[in-house]
Amino acid sequence: MKDSTTESRFEKDTDTWSVLENILREGAQRMLIQAIENEVDEFIEKHSLKVDENGHRIVVRNGHLPERVIVSGLGPFSVKRPRVDDRKLDPEKDERVSSTILPRYLRKIPSVDNLIPVLYLKGISTNGFQEALASILGEGAKGLSAANIVRLKKSWEDDFLAWTRRDLSGRKYAYIWADGIHFNVRLDSERSCILVIMGADSDGNKELLAVSDGYRESADSWTEMLLGLKKQGIEVDPKLAIGDGALGFWKALDKVFPETKRQRCWVHKTANILDKMPKSVQSKAKSLIHEMYMAETEENALKAYDHFVSSFQDKYPKAVGCLTKDKEDLFTFYSFPGVHWIHIRTTNPIESTFATVRLRTKRTKGCGSRTATLSMVWKLCCEAEKTWKKLKGYKLIPKVLQGVFCKDGVLEDAA
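The structure assignment produced for this chain is given below.
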């Protein structure tokens, strides 16, 4: 039997959230309408001095366009954009009215584009999309029928295939991050993970470079992926590659970009070491590992390294062996600008992008097509890419590309 107090409290909370959602939705609607009105007012004011032979303004309001329903994360809401009569403007001198806030064909807020790939990767069938979207966006989430979803997915697949063939000639990348993402989406047992490569270009912008599927992160899969980047026009080896311990990637890197230096991801390395130690000592071990990669100088980092080895060698040789086998690739970041260390010690740029998807998906009974799955993952990456920020200290990237390395994070020519 349900507790009446708990039940009434639940109903009250539900009502509260319903009211709050309505307030937020109405507020967003008012803000959008006001922004559109201001945009129209500015356009009319800009042309206020232009008149016809009778002295009448040639740019004026003319009612409103038909009401349009916009689907957003807060649910659907309707807006009317003011109609402007600007037909008398000289097309060779003046641009016609065009809203940057509410483009002509916009029917849903771009963030909704995140939902469709996630639902697909979760295993929702095309016919189930409308019900799933309605439960998230509200019953008014129209215009997203099964037929529309199919067309949208097809357009993304076409865009993805075009993206994989884009021209990268002349592009240079100071850093690249590589990782194999195992989040059990629509992949068959033969293709067990998604391979992702990101790069930092000459301006310090993070950029998605490649997305593919691979067989257990094999050297052949990574080689095919890196050779694809070369085929697209990347001729200069990146200065540094950051990745985990997958031997396939490092073998492929040596083959395709032999001049690129290596940096093992400290997050992966820490997890691998601690996994070989009992929980009773993991806290202390983690603290010592932290001292290694957070040290101000490589000398101090190596002292912390030696301390860890001497402290645990006898009792936990496997954990120490996990650390020592990659010694040469763990401290490479000290040869690069100190302001970049936060970016190049780990593969976090990739990890953070896929964290939500990886944690919330389950393997489905049936697999989608390879292209469809990759295009959905790519679409999620593209949406995430919009929020990526430039590297800190991006003005030093040209120095890195010139091959000016550092001593403990300080540029040699700046000493």
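Interim note for the steering committee: The longest helix spans residues 4-46. The mean pLDDT is 81.
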